[in-house]
Amino acid sequence: MDQINIVRFPGLGLEFKINKVAFSVFGIPVYWYGIIICTGLLLAVFLGLKNCKKFGINSDNVFDIVFWALPSAIICARIYYIVFNWNDYDGDIMKMINIREGGLAIYGGIIGAVLAGYIVTRVKKIDFLTVADLAGPYFIMAQGIGRWGNFVNQEAFGRNTNLPWGMHSDAIQEYLEMLGDSSIDPMAPVHPTFLYESVWNLCVFFFLLWYRRRYKVKGEVFFLYMMLYGVGRAWIEGLRTDSLYIASTSIRVSQLLAVAFAVVFAVVIFIRRRMCS
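RESULT FIELD:
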């Protein structure tokens, strides 16, 4: 059955009819969310393989790292989302493992991929920071592409805005009415925060590609990726209405992590530059 949303950008006079289902296979719907996420991941792997020799990394080793890092990223992204959204699952295992309609937290995915990548490089005796410098730009490119899956699902949006690119849909209105925040008007346009993050990520991607041709301190491209993503996410997360919170507090867990990553990796970059100067 089609799952169609009419998404409007009133200030721009634009309207889009969005179907969450791309097609069906034997009656099983295949969602655009999954297709878009997979497109970003496959493009990242392709570019990694195309450029790995410049970093002295064998393509077979890239495949080995991806083989372990990809499922680790998906599993950790889902676990992260469930842990901080526990009440929505009510102990239902089948609901927990169903990721076709969304529910992947990118910070969980980053943590899972980095941990798995580190373990594989240690086992295969490959320099982790060299691999990280290769992968960093492609990580954030995949994230920038993947955010469009949130657009199709009509999630990862922000509070009300008067800016011309504010958006609105029945799905957004339904969610905001259920949220019950008196400071937000469910009928008014909201910030397209998925778009803000996508644009930020792709700008960082192109900057890192430019910087990677010039850097001299090993690991700095990866550290910049973590720092710059943290800077952008810390600001954007503050606009969102669907943030994951720590227990019953008002602390947005992804915003806290973003600030921590931005500060920690800025310090790491400073220290390593001092040590290598």
